[in-house]
Amino acid sequence: MVDIFPENWAVLLLGLLFLLTLAQLLVTYVLSDSVTPPAGVGLFTVYFMATLLGWIAFSLQQNTGMPMAVDVPAVAAILNSYLLFLAAGQRARDPRGRIALGIACLLGCLSVFFLLPKAMYLTQSGLSGLFFAATGLLCGRRALSKRNVGDAIIAGAAALVVVAVPVAHYQLLVGDDMRLARVITFGAYVWCFALLVVGFLTSVLFEYQQHLSHLATEDPMTGLLNRRGLGDTLRISLAKANREDIETAAIMVDIDHFQNVNDSFGHEAGDYVLREVAATLDRLSRSSDAVARIGGEEFVLVLPDTDLASARVLAERICNALGERPLLVDQQRIPITVSLGVASLRGNITLDELCRESDRAMYLAKRSGRNRVASVEPNTMHLSNTGKVG
Ligand SMILES: Nc1nc2c(ncn2[C@@H]2O[C@H](COP(=O)(O)OP(=O)(O)OP(=O)(O)O)[C@@H](O)[C@H]2O)c(=O)[nH]1
């Protein structure tokens, strides 16, 4: 037990923790430059830096016997564990408990001026255990909701301290062994800190990887699928449709004279129109349909297990919903209409074929005056007579 007493380990551990913190800071620095920096990255960075300073104060006190007017390491431990709770709350976007635990933290820090060492130790480790328990709850919940293993590691690290504190208190209060109590909490803090660094890095990198895979399959402006995402989403349902000879329909949607919107109202208004159209398509389609933006002002809906007549009904509904009243952007009314092409295929079909056929129908709608629905069946074409002149 002597070997792991703080006096012997502090300097060695300090080096290890310093390296871990450096690695964490490096990754944080790289990721914080991205458009959407990871949630809580600022407070977690402050926590890691502050904890390192706390370790330095601790090893100075232990190894040099430097006299300190107040128990600085104890205050640092209370403040740092509260900081960790704040960082976890920021990452989980859950501010609950900040004020109540903040008051507890303040009282704990002030108690350093009038408590004797034993009572001070119990107060400090008790409060730290409380803040770590709250951190563990926040990160555990986030790990479940986001399915992020990094948050689970952070929760596990916090649980280590939560378990160690009552064991240490027992050794002190029942066994009257202050030295053993301190060894237990010290060991738990060190392992916890190392696990926290690993957990935070894992959590952030895991999230970053998810973000990259979204970027590859999602249109960032509208939040709809992009071409690749559409292919990924439909792989299974198209394979099923081919195997069971089920009909699949597609609706190609193209905004009419969109260039005029950009020229007359500006690109920002144009982007707004794209987002509004995307939202309407998303709202009017079923959850089993796949909606994607596959070009500048071109969208496609793929409707599994849907025949041509049903797909036309949806297309007419979209045409009417978008054309019935102008969009309001910055007090300006922007009238828009769309041309829609509907196709339905069965047999051994591919996404490319569905897009090609619905595109053919959409061009028929454009050529026939826009703001209408046209459909194609193999070798046959139908033009909507419900389209309105915009
Ligand atoms: N604001 C904005 N405009 C875009 C975006 N992508 C493409 N565009 C614009 O969309 C317009 C497409 O113009 P065209 O292909 O000529 O089509 P159109 O003016 O809609 O004419 P028709 O399709 O024939 O009715 C161009 O002006 C592009 O600059 C985008 O992400 N944002």
TrEMBL record:
The Swiss-Prot or TrEMBL record lists the needed cofactor(s) as: Mg(2+)
Record-listed E.C. numbers: 2.7.7.65
Task: Please tell me whether the keyword Transmembrane helix is annotated for this protein.
Answer: yes
What GO MF terms are annotated?
Answer: diguanylate cyclase activity
Its domain of life reads: Bacteria
Annotated transmembrane regions: 12-32, 39-60, 66-87, 99-116, 122-140, 152-172, 184-206
What sequence ranges are listed for the domain GGDEF?
Answer: 246-378
Quote the Gene3D superfamilies the UniProt record gives.
3.30.70.270
Query: What reaction gets catalysed by this protein?
Result: 2 GTP = 3',3'-c-di-GMP + 2 diphosphate
SMART domains assigned: GGDEF (SM00267)
Which UniProt keywords are present, listed alphabetically? Membrane, Transmembrane, Transmembrane helix
State the InterPro entries in the record.
Answer: Diguanylate_Cyclase (IPR050469), GGDEF_dom (IPR000160), Nucleotide_cyclase (IPR029787), Rev_trsase/Diguanyl_cyclase (IPR043128)
Q: What protein is this chain from?
A: diguanylate cyclase
Q: Which organism is it from?
A: Pseudohalioglobus sediminis
